[in-house]
Amino acid sequence: MPDKRATSPAEAATKEKRKAASTHEVIQDLRERIASQALLPGTRVPEEDLAQAYDIPRAKAREVLATLEDRALVERVPNKGAVVAFVDMETTYRLYQVREALDGLAVRLAIANATPADWEAMQALLGEPFEQSLKDGDIEAHVATIEQFRNHIKTLARNPVLSDMIERIYDRTRVSMRRVALLPGRSEMGIKQYRALLDAMVRGDADEAERCVRELNGSARDYIERYKNYVI
């Protein structure tokens, strides 16, 4: 793996003068930076740095850190304070097991709620550009499409409790998801699996759709186990 230098929140955030961000905007930005590893595990996230980087009061910075800690993206370490959390192999494996079950429920609910327009939008997502992004080596675009597709399913499920649980799992597996996409043959297999899942959903076959999404997550978990020294 190429060596990456950890950046502080102040360095990672834009240096341009801007309107003070809302708590939600700061949380979303930090979630993305952690997922993309602009902020590496172990990076300190001092309250004062957040306040300065995002031009927000210290009280709001504390609220941001409390939310990230609640989502297990940040942890408190003695003598260091708040740092970006590291997700170990055992935890990653267990997260994928839970994700498999949650996704199974989500696809069942989505099938019941989807309209023809929803299916058209999802089919467009998994069309030729989805495959072409992989051929072009644009992994970021490829993974972004997968996240959009999964977000469609989560939204169509129309269950706020389930949605929150899925988001928390995704937050902690997005780094491994990006790395798994780079593994030999994984993305090519994933394209077939995502399309098979969507076909089952469009047909209204909830049992087959759940089987497909469990197989998809299970194979990703197998890749993580096989390439654990790279993924974790």
TrEMBL record:
The HTH gntR-type domain, residue ranges: 20-87
PROSITE patterns recorded for this chain?
A: HTH_GNTR
Any single GO molecular-function term of the entry would be: DNA binding
Q: Where is this region: Disordered?
A: 1-25
Q: InterPro entries, from UniProt?
A: GntR_C (IPR011711), TF_FadR/GntR_C (IPR008920), Tscrpt_reg_HTH_GntR (IPR000524), WH-like_DNA-bd_sf (IPR036388), WH_DNA-bd_sf (IPR036390)
Q: List UniProt keywords, sorted A-Z.
A: DNA-binding, Transcription, Transcription regulation
Q: Per UniProt, what is one Pfam family of this protein?
A: FCD
Query: Is Transmembrane among this UniProt entry's keywords?
Result: no
Q: Can you name this protein?
A: GntR family transcriptional regulator
Q: Which organism is it from?
A: Achromobacter denitrificans
**Which lineage?**
Bacteria, Pseudomonadati, Pseudomonadota, Betaproteobacteria, Burkholderiales
